[in-house]
């Protein structure tokens, strides 16, 4: 995408301007979105994102600039403006030319069906199949299906000599079913995504994905308002892992740890969770929604054990975080796109399987909640307070899963919740999500087996 | 090519190909400083822009955009947009008849100041917060500004441009008293750099956070609730889509078919006004070139209007209120601009909960069903006085139901940016709400 001599010149200008590290990130992303409501195309959008982000370090101070103007003049202007903004401390002894170590992708997550291999009409047919699947009965009133495709090419070059290129092709099918019974309206959602091309439809049958969304909407129609209060909660596998993502994962990013803005800072080697919990972040899972060959700082991604049997073993460390904390980078520097400087982020993060059977988790529960599928959530790392919405939930009475309930919100403090995990089953599964933080919204997987937490505040309807 | 040259190129090529096209060219300039505990952490400078097209062929619309402004990329988006249009079965799309819209500068000299003086503001707010009692540390203090240029042109004759801008100053902090930790933030937004006051921002951030220290748990129950403006703005930010003509036409809004009905209590008057002087979302015309005007959505509790653009207005046989919005990277949407709840004559709470902040709004609100269940922080009021802060609880309810239980409104508006708009609200007293706690 870019001339190496030009990039070397831009980086050298930065160093002459006093920066002790400079990195140029260039991105060219083709996006396609196709959204249908009740069989009609409501949104058909194609686009090309194209831009460069330049990041300079002056010690632990960061300056960042981005532009769509990738001409030689544009890039020179970018670096000169940035250096001028960070005036002073100029060291004219910046070293000369750069000898880049070129790293090309080997195709670990490469698509087998390229986006250009199928016409738009093929996509439309698959979406119509998903819609047919979602119409499980007449109460399913509206069905919205969408297909998101990203084809991102990146180059990352820096003054340490990194020249890494990567291509990330991601595809996601999303189905939302709206069911109505009298005045009652409820929605069900199913939305698988992987780092693949259009072979996504071979991994996930559109009809089945549609059916899952339709059935969830119907379940919620007969759901009563959730109970309110503090109670034991069994959290379902797959997207249930969002609770750990919120309550624990965000607290382990150096973005928070380095600023001592996380209650998990400076606690390596300490027991921070129940011994039943082993928590891992792995950016190398083949075709994982959050996988890539290199991160957005050009470093190879890896597998990072965060918590091993309850003991804190590691953090998610980006280049800036490594400078501040001294921890080794973990290939976790990620950004939404060229408009944002990378920060430490999760990739595919999950609780490892335990040995309990799923049935045994429910056995001892007198009265509690089975949170089978989750919505999204939020956390404040400084206090550990989190909340998230439960999409599909059931009441547990005397060890049995009984009627569905809706509108439940789980509320608590992450460090307390992870200590209250009393049993972990063996049925781990991951699910895709979009995670928002300082460096924008990035694709991640969350995951876990079914697990039992002894007490969580459930925000339902007080009566 | 510049965005303006790209716009001219696309209009020419579209006319050659005999298709209707509406071209939106956007160029943004940004400058930001993020500081923490006396040192500069990040400086950001940016130029970003691109062009997006809405193509209409045989009453079918397709969209595409590019940030690479070369003839090849521009031809690619025209082809893609035409293909995207051809996927539609329904033939209902049209481009509105255009007109000369003029060239407007709403920003003027609003952001004219040196970069150093902007950085100094961020450093000052950081210092001022740390000087407050119980503040343990600053997580970040920031100054950010954005200058926004919009060019609109269509083969149907629309032609115009405008320039707006906004500057913001904010700070996040962690406060501590004994074992009680609270994280909080406050930010101010202005259309003029000179209107920012670091001392005020710092005091407000510290006050909002430290008053919640030592919070107790709230017993589960139903209580009267006094929403502070930020909390109510968050709710309105999640639920304005009920008024979206696009959502109404697609059958996704519970306000469908209810014009003229009482949908809220008498104190509630909800207005959207893109013509407000110094409004953060003020603009001379919308993304289709419809001139801006004030729209009353709810008048003393009665539903008076939806927010519409040309297509939703036609589908609903409703006036076009000029609320089309499009990013060059997206499709045409309907959004509010400066949306506000008309202030009342003041509120007082004898016993109940002051809801200071809501969390988890993106996940905990369902705009289709109208239901919400949200983590909240607040203050317990007894005998008309704040008794102590409360935490670890959730508020649950139905937004339209809540609007029917509004009993009084404060007398002063506060503005809060929310996704897609800026919302102004006074404090809002609701007579009865469900709280889930211990």
Structural description of this entry:
The complex is a heterodimer of chains A (463) and B (438). Chain A has 463 residues and is of the alpha+beta class. Chain A has three domains: 4-103, PmbA/TldD fold (2-Layer Sandwich), CATH 3.30.2290; 115-154 and 167-222, 2-Layer Sandwich (PmbA/TldD fold), CATH 3.30.2290.10; 229-459, no CATH class. Chain A is built from ten helices and 24 strands. The longest helix of chain A is centred in the middle third of the chain and has 16 residues, at 206-221. Chain A is globular, with a radius of gyration of 24 Å. The termini of chain A are far apart. In chain B, 21% of the residues lie in helices and 42% in strands. In chain B, strands 1, 2, 3, 4, 5, 6 and 7 form a seven-stranded mixed β-sheet that branches. A six-stranded mixed β-sheet of chain B has the order 12-11-10-15-22-21, with helices on one face. In chain B, strand 17 and strand 18 (371-382) form a beta hairpin. Chain B starts with a helix and ends with a strand. Strand 3 (61-67) of chain A pairs parallel with strand 2 of chain B.
Spatial gap, N to C terminus of chain B: 62 Å
Overall domain count of chain B: 2
Radius of gyration of chain A: 24 Å
Class by SSE composition of chain B: alpha+beta
User: What amount of the residues of chain A lies in strands?
Assistant: 35-45%
Helix segment tally of chain A: 10
Helix and strand topology:
The complex is a heterodimer of chains A (about 475) and B (about 450).
Chain A: H1 4-16, E1 21-37, E2 40-58, E3 61-67, H2 72-85, E4 101-103, H3 120-134, E5 140-158, E6 162-181, E7 184-190, E8 193-194, H4 200-203, H5 206-221, E9 224-225, E10 229-235, H6 242-247, H7 254-257, E11 279-282, E12 303-308, E13 311-312, H8 319-325, E14 333-334, E15 343-344, E16 348-351, H9 358-363, E17 367-380, E18 385-397, E19 400-406, E20 409-413, H10 414-419, E21 421-424, E22 429-437, E23 440-448, E24 451-459
Parallel strand pairs in A: 4-6, 9-19, 10-17, 16-23
Antiparallel strand pairs in A: 1-2, 1-5, 2-3, 5-6, 6-7, 6-8, 10-24, 11-12, 11-16, 12-13, 14-15, 17-18, 18-19, 18-20, 20-24, 21-24, 22-23
Chain B: H1 3-17, E1 20-36, E2 39-57, E3 60-66, H2 71-86, E4 100-105, H3 115-130, E5 135-154, E6 159-177, E7 180-190, H4 198-210, E8 216-217, E9 221-227, H5 229-239, H6 245-249, E10 270-272, E11 295-299, E12 302-303, H7 310-316, E13 324-325, E14 333-334, E15 338-341, E16 352-359, H8 361-364, E17 365-366, E18 371-382, E19 385-398, H9 399-404, E20 406-409, E21 414-418, E22 421-425, E23 428-436
Parallel strand pairs in B: 4-6, 8-19, 9-16, 15-22
Antiparallel strand pairs in B: 1-2, 1-5, 2-3, 5-6, 6-7, 9-23, 10-11, 10-15, 11-12, 13-14, 16-18, 17-18, 18-19, 19-23, 20-23, 21-22
């Amino acid at each position: 995408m870019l001339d190496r001599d030009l990039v070397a010149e831009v980086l050298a200008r930065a160093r002459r301007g006093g920066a002790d590290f400079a990195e140029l990130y260039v991105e060219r992303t083709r996006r396609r979105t196709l959204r249908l409501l009740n069989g009609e195309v409501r949104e058909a959008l194609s686009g090309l994102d194209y831009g460069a982000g330049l990041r300079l370090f002056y010690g632990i101070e960061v300056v960042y600039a981005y532009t769509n103007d990738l001409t030689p003049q544009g890039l020179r202007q970018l670096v000169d403006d940035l250096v001028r903004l960070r005036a002073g401390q100029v060291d004219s002894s910046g070293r000369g030319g750069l000898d880049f170590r070129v790293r090309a992708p080997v195709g670990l997550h490469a698509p087998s069906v390229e986006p250009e291999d199928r016409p738009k009409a093929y996509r439309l047919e698959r979406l119509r199949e998903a819609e047919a699947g979602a119409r499980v009965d007449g109460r399913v009133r509206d069905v919205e299906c969408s297909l998101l495709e990203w084809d991102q090419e990146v180059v990352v070059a820096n003054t340490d000599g990194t020249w890494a290129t990567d291509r990330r092709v991601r595809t996601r099918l999303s189905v939302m079913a709206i069911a109505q019974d009298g005045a009652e309206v409820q929605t069900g959602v199913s939305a698988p995504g992987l780092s693949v091309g259009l072979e996504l439809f071979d991994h996930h049958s559109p009809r089945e994905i549609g059916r899952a969304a339709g059935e969830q909407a119907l379940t919620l129609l007969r759901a009563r308002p959730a109970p309110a209060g503090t109670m034991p909660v069994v959290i379902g596998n797959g997207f249930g892992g969002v609770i750990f993502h919120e309550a624990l994962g965000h607290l382990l990013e150096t973005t928070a740890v380095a600023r001592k803005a996380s209650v998990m800072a400076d606690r390596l080697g300490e027991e921070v969770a129940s011994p039943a919990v082993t928590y891992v972040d792995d950016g190398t899972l083949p075709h994982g929604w959050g996988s890539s060959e290199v991160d957005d700082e050009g470093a190879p991604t890896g597998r990072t054990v965060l918590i091993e049997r309850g003991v804190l073993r590691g953090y998610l460390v980006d280049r800036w975080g490594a400078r501040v904390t001294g921890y080794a980078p973990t290939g976790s520097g990620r950004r939404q796109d060229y408009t944002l400087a990378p920060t430490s982020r999760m990739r595919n993060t999950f609780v490892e399987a335990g040995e309990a059977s799923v049935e045994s988790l429910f056995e001892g529960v007198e009265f509690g909640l089975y949170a089978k599928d989750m919505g999204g959530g939020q956390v404040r790392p400084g206090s550990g307070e989190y909340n998230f919405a439960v999409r599909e939930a059931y009441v547990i009475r005397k060890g049995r899963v009984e009627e569905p309930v809706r509108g439940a919100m789980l509320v608590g403090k992450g460090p307390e919740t992870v200590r209250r995990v009393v049993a972990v089953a063996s049925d781990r599964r991951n699910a895709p999500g979009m995670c928002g933080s300082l460096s924008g919204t990035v694709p991640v997987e969350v995951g876990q087996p079914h697990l039992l937490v002894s007490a969580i505040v459930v925000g339902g309807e007080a009566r | 090519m510049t965005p303006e040259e790209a716009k001219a190129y696309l209009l020419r090529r579209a006319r050659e190909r005999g298709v209707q096209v509406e071209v939106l060219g956007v160029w943004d300039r940004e400058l930001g400083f993020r500081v923490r505990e006396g040192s500069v952490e990040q400086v950001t400078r940016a130029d970003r822009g691109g062009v997006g097209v809405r193509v209409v062929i045989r009453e079918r619309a397709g969209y595409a955009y590019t940030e690479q402004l070369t003839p090849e990329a521009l031809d690619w988006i025209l082809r893609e947009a035409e293909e995207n249009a051809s996927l539609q079965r329904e033939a209902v799309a049209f481009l509105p008849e255009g007109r000369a819209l003029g060239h407007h500068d709403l920003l003027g000299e609003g952001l004219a100041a040196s970069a150093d003086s902007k950085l100094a503001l961020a450093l000052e707010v950081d210092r001022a917060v740390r000087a407050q009692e119980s503040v343990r540390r600053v997580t970040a203090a920031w100054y950010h500004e954005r200058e926004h240029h919009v060019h609109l042109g269509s083969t149907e004759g629309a032609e115009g441009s405008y320039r707006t801008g906004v500057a913001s100053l904010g700070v996040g902090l962690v406060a501590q008293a004994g074992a009680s930790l609270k994280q909080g933030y406050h930010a101010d937004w202005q259309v003029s750099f000179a209107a920012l006051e670091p001392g005020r921002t710092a005091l407000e951030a510290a006050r909002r956070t430290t008053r919640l220290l030592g919070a107790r748990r709230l017993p589960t129950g139903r209580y009267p609730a006094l929403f502070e403006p930020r909390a109510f703005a968050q709710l309105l930010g999640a639920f304005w889509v009920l008024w979206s003509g696009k959502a109404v036409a697609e059958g996704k809004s519970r306000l469908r078919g209810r014009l003229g009905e009482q949908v809220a209590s008498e104190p509630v008057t909800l207005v959207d006004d893109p013509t407000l002087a110094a409004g953060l979302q003020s603009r001379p015309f919308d993304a289709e070139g419809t001139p801006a005007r004030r729209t009353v959505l709810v008048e003393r509790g009665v539903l008076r209007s939806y927010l519409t653009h040309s297509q939703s207005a036609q589908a609903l046989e409703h006036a076009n209120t000029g609320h089309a919005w499009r990013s060059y990277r997206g499709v045409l949407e309907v959004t509010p601009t400066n949306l506000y709840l008309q202030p009342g004559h003041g509120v007082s709470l004898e016993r109940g909960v002051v809801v200071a902040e809501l969390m988890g709004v993106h996940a905990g609100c369902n705009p289709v069903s109208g239901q919400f269940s949200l983590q909240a922080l607040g203050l317990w009021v007894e005998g008309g006085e704040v008794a102590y802060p409360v935490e670890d609880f959730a508020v649950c309810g139905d937004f339209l139901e809540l609007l029917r239980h509004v009993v009084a409104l404060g007398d002063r508006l506060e503005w809060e940016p929310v996704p897609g708009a800026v919302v102004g609200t006074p404090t809002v007293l609701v007579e009865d709400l469900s709280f889930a706690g211990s």
